[in-house]
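The data are quoted verbatim for reference:
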Amino acid sequence: MCQISSLRELKYTLTNLTSITFTSYPGARDCLKNLSTLSCYSNIYPEFFYHLSKICQTTIHTLRIIFNESISNGLADLISSLQNLRHLKVCLHKYGVDLTDINTLISKFPNSLITLRIYGGIKCYFKAVIPLSFIARFTNLQELVFIFYSNEYYEGFNKLQYVVFPQLRSLNIYMKCPENELLKKFLENNGKNLKEFYVKSNDNSLNLAIVKFCPNLRNLSIRIEDNELEILETILISCQYLESIRIFGYKYYNKKGITEIIMKYSSKIKLFL
């Protein structure tokens, strides 16, 4: 650590070396004083988080937390100390973490977040999932990403649908999707400012909501079936600023027909199938 003058990124996911507090080694403060990106498990020994909270209050702007069995007492200390946190990724795919502890931890995050990514594993291992209504606190969000393999993780989206995020520019929903009616209401409140929207699991009614509420999109990824190609023309007419469009579907597409529709409205739009 004495030989590294300025460490910028640290990925620390070991939890079995609880007696090693390398953050207190000689040279640690100088080594870590400019740390900007941290990836770690939630159950690392408390001293690790405590020492970082004293060294990196203003430097860490990107944090990735993997919830793993339990939450260290020191993690709340670190989160409370971060004054310039901008980007947060939360991974929820391990059992054994108390929901109350997670909710308490979430309340510590500052409203400075501009990017929030939440990952939920293939199976919901928690006895109860985190209500997504907590996201309403982060009114400065510019990018919101959900990567959920189970619909259980969308608990609380029924309240989130009414929240307005005036700075939101990118909404990406991978794998499972919220109920269409909830998502359409969310787009009604936030679609006007969106520049990017990714949703793989949807139906034609959601595509019509995109037409109605998202006129300023630059990049769009949606599902369109072979018998719904007329909606593609409607989207191209409504979303005149599109630069790229990715189309998903269960069947084989008439690629020539889609290409002709795209070319009819703009030769500059990039098409991905």
The chain has nine helices and eleven strands. The mean pLDDT is 86. The longest helix spans residues 180-190. The chain has one domain: 9-209.
